Model the fold of this input.
Amino acid sequence: MKIRNASLSWIDSNLPFSKRFKDIYYSRGDELAESQHVFLKGNRLTAHWAEMAERESPFTIAEIGFGAGLNFLRTWHLFQKTQRKPARLHYIGFEKYPLSFDDLTRVHSRWLSLTKLSDQLRSVYSDHSSGCHRLHLGNEILLDLHFGDTLIQLENLPSRMQVDIWYLDGFTPRLNPEMWQPQLFQSIASHSKSDATLTSYSVAGNIRKNLQAAGFAVEKQPGHARKRHMLFAKNCQNKTSRESMLNNYGYGKYNIERAVLNQPTRSVLIIGAGIAGCSMAYSLAQRNWEVKVIDQAPGAATGASGNSQLALRCRLFQTDSELARFYLHSFLYTQRELRQLSKNNRINFHNCGVLQLVGAMNKQRDLNPNKLKKLYNEQVMQTLDVQSASKLANCQLTEAAYYFPLGGWIDGSLLCDTYLDHPSIDLITDQVVSSLKKNDNQWQLLGKEQKEIARAPIVVIANSHNASQFQQTYQLPLTTLPGQTSTISATDQSLSLATVVCGNRTVFPEIGNHHNLSASYRREGTRLELRPDDDQQNLMGAQACFQGDYLSQVIQSARVTVRCNSKDNFPVVGKVPNVSKLQDHSMLERHYGQIGKISSDYYLPGLYITAAHGSNGLATCPLSSEYLASLIDQEVPPFGQSIIGALDPARFIIREIRKKR
Ligand code: SAM
Done:
């Protein structure tokens, strides 16, 4: 998951040259004017935007070769200045060797007219780790930076991903033949809208030939300055054949989301007001959905999400896998979101760092530090000996630790309130949803005595361990994990604790003259009584992290809540499967090795779930919500098929069916 950065030398004043490809990033001269000519004017952006001015779904531009982001900054600048345009711009940048932050800053110093936008981009830019970094730049601009080889990243994205416009800017084909393969053009075609356009400064014969073979009509147009030509291409694939390809490839014939998308009121109901439900509401409200969040309790965050200190750290894996990537990007996404929310709102993300002691028994066992070091960039995780870890914690720890410099803690209840504090979100409390009923393309939420609470075409189930209480979800193998947190008084000594420390228990830095210790795990049931034994276990687990008697032994208070997990210990996020249809073996036959690519005909239209986030919900809920919002809004999701498959609620049923074959 580590990624290699661009290796640059410099020509003229801060103009980058790739040592790896032996090519220039921009023609000498006026690169801003060239970008404007080839990519912005070449694709007739303002005319396209005007035609789509009423559209709620975003306008999607994908760029191969994001480089220093000049084309992106120019496009964003133009979008800001343009009056008639779609509500949002989704820009997807593919980049194999991202510029380091310092190199990016150096290149950007050339573009004074773009300084403000550059500052905003650089405040969230990541220069490490392969995979998709989803960055929000205000309400209008969504930037997905896919780091890694374009072909691999693109092929992994669902073919529902439909791009309006492509910028091809990946160095001269002669110097980068590995990228410009015929397969790349086929993949571009399968991810394009039926009227997508594309430009490139290169008019090389094989690019034109490959584009034509992929279904594009290609033209040479006048190039910029001394360059005689540039390339313009338009997708000419037959619209019906593309629709039928999408239908066969996972997106079903009738699509309720498509039907709702451009209606005057786009309404959605969310069951559950913990972090899963509240972050879901926020992601949808940001996309102009009218959201009602319904909870059985008198307020938001009354369950495990409501702990006054929740730790943000990255669940570690020692080999690269879709789940390792999901947990990494979830962690990175949440810390960016918390930093942004902290800027504008009353929450405070305490970015004090998190130390996870190497022997922590309730974390994954037997992690090999050398393997971890190979996988995780130092900006994400560092392996520290006991002295260095103790120095950061500002006290004597008992073990070496994995350190997450981007981690920290937040008040879960305040976070939920902040998510809900949006004019398009209503919180409905004290309502127990007992069943869901489909009626005329609307889902009805029914309460006591079948009384309707609310209805909408789209519903997201986000009520943690209660999520499998419905007839539509009862087969999902969700487990409940009650756990108790304890609070102890702070002492003069323990006030020094400077980071979150996760050992067999997690110990937080002092707030309000006390420390929170979380949490015990009880395997059985959902009974929520406070247990003195659990307090003692919490105290022992916490004390074992530190040398001597560092912590007070006086329990002040305790809180019991229930976390929800799944049979395989990974979150359950996606469309709710239509179990009886899935169990029809013959229909499923061709989808057996392809969880995550199953046709939407096998799911219940308009019904989604986000659950089983275990004790990692602070990290995994926000990106899961972005994923579901992308599904609902028919946007390009923030990760590809392999992660989609690993989270797919249908995975358990398919595994069962496979076993029986
Ligand atoms: N469009 C950029 C801008 O506006 O700043 C300049 C792009 S520069 C000419 C070409 C970029 O393509 C380099 O950053 C290079 O690392 C990237 N690249 C080369 N091969 C690639 C591949 N297979 N996948 C993704 N990016 C690639």
Remarks:
- Residues 246-254 have pLDDT under 50 and may be disordered.
- Residues 6, 25, 64-71, 94-97, 149-150, 169-171, 176, 179 surround S-adenosylmethionine (CB under 6 Å).
- The longest strand covers residues 478-489.
